[in-house]
């Protein structure tokens, strides 16, 4: 068991193209967004297990000796299978939730306990740890915040328990694990995502683990060739929605109007493939012309997504406000509210981007200037982290 403090971070994700079409076997393109979740793991000698999630106001403590006495044989899952209802109930008993605990809080705690007990149970004794997780990602916005959380937990616990080596050298600010270690991190993170979401696709945790950009189709995930970084505005409309209900409504529309909706899905697939081709060209010789093509694809996809019933007045407003400044936007993720992305061409002048950003903020949206293609799960030295991140992890 390692005795040093570990600091890790993992990115969120956005869907570039392929929302909902991916449910029907089409291609989706996803990219890591340069907004991250950070975790600090500190071994301690007080016999307690402390979990602190300041973003959602959770502070929980368990007695390690009591956890040690529990029968955790129900967690023996060499093949990484789904937890049964009975196993979930046992995990809830271990968690000991207060009556007023909200569902999202329960799921975050259950994922943590599942990963802690599963990964650390091979140790001679369960370790006493103080774990704090803080995120730049807004929860429930479709940006993969739960996946980044699960990836950070898996990486930190596997490293602390010496299941994988710590890749950080003394003189380094940050480092990443070898490919086989990332595979193991991703497998455990997917299990954490299953606790939270039940039946996730695996895209979010894969993007968070590997970083960069990925292509996903019918369970197969592969890396995308792409330019080093694409700059975007990421806008959160703050309009909440149920992804499950929206998937059902798109499926119903396909059943009701198959000859109309099936071609829409085929067109969205063609946009994903064309975007993949353009990004591949940009990886070797980026030109301004490529950005104009990406903008056209964004506009076309947004109209197709509206035809599938995924639009919302807030997203219309977002697209109109950015178009007024010569920028091109589309929804990303669930639609019917949620988030949108706006491509920032490299020839755009700073004041124009800032004017668009301020217009969106003044309307009541949250808006961040960020980039796509961020590195996946990483381990850091304390000095390499920005002061606000260090303060958040220290609970200041």
What tags apply to this protein structure?
396 residues; alpha+beta; Ribosomal Protein S5, domain 2; Alpha-Beta Plaits; 2 domains; 9-stranded mixed beta sheet; 4-stranded antiparallel beta sheet; 43% helix
Structure, explained:
With 396 residues, the protein is of the alpha+beta class. It has 2 domains: 6-224 and 377-394, Ribosomal Protein S5, domain 2, CATH 3.30.230.10; 230-372, GHMP kinase, C-terminal domain (Alpha-Beta Plaits, 2-Layer Sandwich). Helix content is 43%, strand content 21%. It is built from 12 helices and 13 strands. The strands form 2 sheets. Strands 1, 2, 3, 4, 5, 6, 7, 8 and 13 form a 9-stranded mixed beta sheet that branches. Helix 4 (145-160) packs across helix 5.
Report the structural category. alpha+beta
Can you summarize the main beta sheet?
9 strands, mixed
Q: How many structural domains can be distinguished in the coordinates?
A: 2
Helix content: 40-55%
Percentage of β-strand residues? 15-25%
What is the CATH third-level topology name of the largest domain? Answer: Ribosomal Protein S5, domain 2
Q: Could you name the ranges where pLDDT drops below 50 across 5 or more consecutive residues? A: none
Helix-strand sequence: EEEEHHHEHEHHEEEHHHHEEHEEH
The strand count comes to: 13
InterPro entries: GHMP_kinase_C_dom, GHMP_kinase_C_sf, GHMP_kinase_N_dom, GHMP_knse_ATP-bd_CS, Mev_gal_kin, Ribosomal_Su5_D2-typ_SF, Ribsml_uS5_D2-typ_fold_subgr
Family: Belongs to the GHMP kinase family. Mevalonate kinase subfamily.
Organism: Pteropus alecto (Black flying fox)
Catalytic activity: (R)-mevalonate + ATP = (R)-5-phosphomevalonate + ADP + H(+)
């Amino acid at each position: 068991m390692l005795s040093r403090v570990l600091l890790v971070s993992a990115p969120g994700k956005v869907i570039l193209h392929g929302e909902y079409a991916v449910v029907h076997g089409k291609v989706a393109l996803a990219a890591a967004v340069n907004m991250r979740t950070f975790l600090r793991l500190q071994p301690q000698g007080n016999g307690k297990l402390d979990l602190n999630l300041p973003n959602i106001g959770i502070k929980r403590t368990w007695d390690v000796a009591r956890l040690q006495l529990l029968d955790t044989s129900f967690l023996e899952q060499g093949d990484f299978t789904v937890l049964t209802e009975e196993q979930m109930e046992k995990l809830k008993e271990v968690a000991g939730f207060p009556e007023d605990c909200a569902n999202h809080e329960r799921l975050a705690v259950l994922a943590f306990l599942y990963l802690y007990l599963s990964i650390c149970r091979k140790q001679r004794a369960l370790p006493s740890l103080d774990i704090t997780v803080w995120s730049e990602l807004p929860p429930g916005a479709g940006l993969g915040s739960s996946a980044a959380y699960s990836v950070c937990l898996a990486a930190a616990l596997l490293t602390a328990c010496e299941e994988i080596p710590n890749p950080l050298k003394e003189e380094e600010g940050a480092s990443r694990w070898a490919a086989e270690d990332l595979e193991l991190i991703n497998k455990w993170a997917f299990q954490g995502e299953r606790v939270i979401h039940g039946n996730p696709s695996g895209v979010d945790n894969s993007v968070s683990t590997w970083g960069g950009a990925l292509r996903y189709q019918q369970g197969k995930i592969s890396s995308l060739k792409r330019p080093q970084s694409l700059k975007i505005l990421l806008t959160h409309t703050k309009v909440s929605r149920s992804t499950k209900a929206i998937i059902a409504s798109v499926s119903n529309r396909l059943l009701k109007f198959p000859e109309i909706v099936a071609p829409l899905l085929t067109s969205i697939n063609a946009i994903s493939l064309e975007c993949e081709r353009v990004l591949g060209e940009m990886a070797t010789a980026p030109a301004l012309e490529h950005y104009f093509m990406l903008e056209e694809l964004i506009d076309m996809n947004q109209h197709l997504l509206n035809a599938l019933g995924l639009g919302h007045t807030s997203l219309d407003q977002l697209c109109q406000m950015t178009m007024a400044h010569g920028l091109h936007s589309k929804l990303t993720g669930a639609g019917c509210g949620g988030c949108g992305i706006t491509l920032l061409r490299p020839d755009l002048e700073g004041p124009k981007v800032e004017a668009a950003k301020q217009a969106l903020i003044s309307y009541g949206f949250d808006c961040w200037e960020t980039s796509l293609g961020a590195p996946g799960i990483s381990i850091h030295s304390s000095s390499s982290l920005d002061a606000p991140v260090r303060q958040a992890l220290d609970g200041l």
